[in-house]
Amino acid sequence: MIERIITSEKGTGARRWELPDIHAPLADQASDPEPSAPETEAEDEALDSAPGLPTADRIMDIERQAREEGLRAGQEEGRRLGLEQGRKEGFAKGQADGLKAAEAAVKERLALLDHLIQGLEQPYAALDAAVEDELVQLAMAVARQLVRRELKTDPGAIVAVLREALEALPSAERKLHLHLHPDDSKLVRETLRLDDLERPWSIVEDPTLSRGGVRVITETSRVDATLESRLNAVIASIWGGERSTDQGGGGGDD
Fold first, then answer.
1. In sequence order, what E strands does the chain have?
2. What's the pLDDT at 78?
3. What is the reported pLDDT for 206?
4. Cα–Cα 20 to 30 A to 200, which of 12, 112, 208, 235?
5. Residue 41 lies in a domain
6. Phi, psi of 124 (to 5 degrees)
7. What are phi and psi of 191, to 5 degrees?
8. What is the CATH number of the domain that holds 149?
9. Alpha-carbon gap, residue 62 to 69, rounded angstroms
10. Phi, psi of 18 (to 5 degrees)
11. In Å, what is the CA distance from 2 to each residue of 5, 42, 49, 203?
12. Is pLDDT of 244 > 50?
């Protein structure tokens, strides 16, 4: 049996219970005394403080809060995972893009360096070609001067050139036309007579030819023994065949 203990503080409003007067009227005995105000307030406080069952609205609020908290937690976790994945992918892509950019920059610098090297080589190549051309021109000028001097000291030298040109013709060729510089044609006329050659010949004065050279033309053949063609043959044997075309034949007496 549980005993209820009431302390002095809680029992201030209590009063002694007395036996009813049996001689009193029945109505007085049946009426219960009304509880005092302090006792009523204590009972109300006890009812208020007692835990009650949650209402339907409270249950819905709890579920809503749980869903919101779960959603926030999921979003934060997804954001964290997404940031981590994005960081890794961004790093990999940035590294690949950086390598491509570096490779392109290296190729560009190498191309620029190659262009600079070629630019340095080209002036030397052009200088070599210019010096070579000057040497060729100098050799031809010296040769012309030597021919002039030789013709002055030995007028018969042009006749020797003429005979060499005639030997290059086929033996059946007739009607020889000898193209000579006017000064050389005079020497040939003074040196040769019409019957000195086995085939009939005639002299054609050509002031465009350099002295010391001759061009023999027949109906079917042509022999170029001009000074320029002979010099080109010598130059070609030294510098190569392309020089014979660079230094074309012909040209008047300097």
1. 176-180, 201-205, 214-217, 222-225
2. 76
3. 92
4. 208
5. no
6. -65, -40
7. -90, -40
8. 3.30.2320.30
9. 11
10. -115, 150
11. 10, 21, 22, 168
12. no
Does residue 124 carry a pLDDT above 70?
no
| Predicted local distance difference test score (pLDDT) of residue 2 | 47
pLDDT confidence tier of residue 1, bands split at 50, 70 and 90: very low
pLDDT digit string, tens, across residues 144-164: 777 667 766 676 777 888 888
Encode burial over 91-124: b for 16+ CB neighbours within 10 A, e otherwise.
eeeeeeeeeeeeeeeeeeeeeeeeeeeeeeeeee
Could you read off the pLDDT of 2-52 as tens digits, one per residue?
Answer: 455 555 555 555 566 666 666 555 555 445 555 555 555 555 555 455 455
Total domain count for the chain?
A: 1
The answer to whether 213 and 253 have CB atoms below 8 angstroms apart is no
What's at 169, amino acid-wise?
L
Q: How far apart are CA 82 and CA 93, in angstroms?
A: 16
Residue 70, number of CB atoms within 10 A of its CB: 10
For 24, which DSSP code? S
* Encoded tokens for 168: 């290059």
In a domain, 38, yes or no: no
- Rounded Cα distance, 186 and 116, in Å: 60
- Which residue has 């490779």 as its token pair? 103
* Residue 196: domain span: 131-246
Phi, psi of 203 (to 5 degrees): -105, 135
